[in-house]
Fold this sequence. Notes:
The structure is a single chain. By secondary structure, the protein is an alpha+beta fold. It has two domains: 35-149, CATH 2.40.50.90; 152-264, Lamin Tail domain (Immunoglobulin-like), CATH 2.60.40.1260. The protein has helices at 3-18, 20-32, 70-81, 110-116, 132-145, and strands spanning 35-39, 41-44, 47-50, 53-57, 59-61, 84-93, 99-105, 108-109, 121-123, 161-167, 172-177, 183-184, 189-191, 197-199, 205-206, 211-216, 231-236, 249-253, 259-264. The strands form five sheets. Strands 1, 2, 3, 4, 6, 7 and 8 form a seven-stranded mixed sheet that branches. It has a four-stranded mixed sheet with strand order 10-11-16-17, with no helix packed on it. Strands 14-13-18-19 form a four-stranded antiparallel sheet, with no helix packed on it. A hairpin with a 4-residue loop joins strand 10 and strand 11. Helix 4 runs parallel beside helix 5.
Amino acid sequence: MDKKVLLLIVLILGIFILNYSFLNSIVVSFFDSGEEVFIDRVIDGDTVVSNGTSIRLLGINAPERGEMYSSEATAFLESFVLNKTVSVKITGQDMYKRELAYLFVDGVNVNLELVRNGFANFYFPSGKDKYYDNFFSAWGECIEENVNLCTKSLDVCSECVELFEWDIKNQKVVLRNVCENSCDLSKWSIKDEGRKKFVLGSGFALGSGNRVEVVVGDEVDSVSLGDSGDVEIIYWEGKNYVWTEGGDTMFLRDASGGLVLWESY
């Protein structure tokens, strides 16, 4: 082989190697940007349709139809994407054959804005991805602004009820009343990041210093759960589990939907 040709090949290879990281970043950026689609329908606060294909927004869970802030969440999402071309980053499909994706409009993560404005909570059922910290921070901003789903409870007992224990392994949440007065917790709810929700029954009261254990599963005969007079055990029936090992959040709300407390792991 001609020495000049060989030298030229070596130079080309050298340039390619030196610039590989730069070229690779371009490729990664290109594939990370996703594709563009036209949104012709908004189903609710976390689901849209493009050309007959349903797209479920990742990282969030918006209220179901009929629930508080459901219509507001839908309207907010419509204002962002309806009848617009948006960039989508699709990561797969869910059990309902919907595409799972992050939506971007002019570089803005629409999913994230729903959380920041209190129209959805963050939700990562398959595990925390690279966007998780952003969504967690957005929820924190929402809490500071005290808006919509982040609105703090005005119930007098919201200052009395604390999370005494959250046992993921044994799937139980323990609440305690730290005030001197008894608290009416009728219709208060415990919810995970997704759709699982437990509602305390009408007339349920928690005495001063007393605790209530909400245990996932059907009632069983057991002495290990305890039976002291200041602890009441209630079973979250019909569920094998609620709190996932990969991380979850517990939201406690009063009867009016005000946020009493929330904890994540």
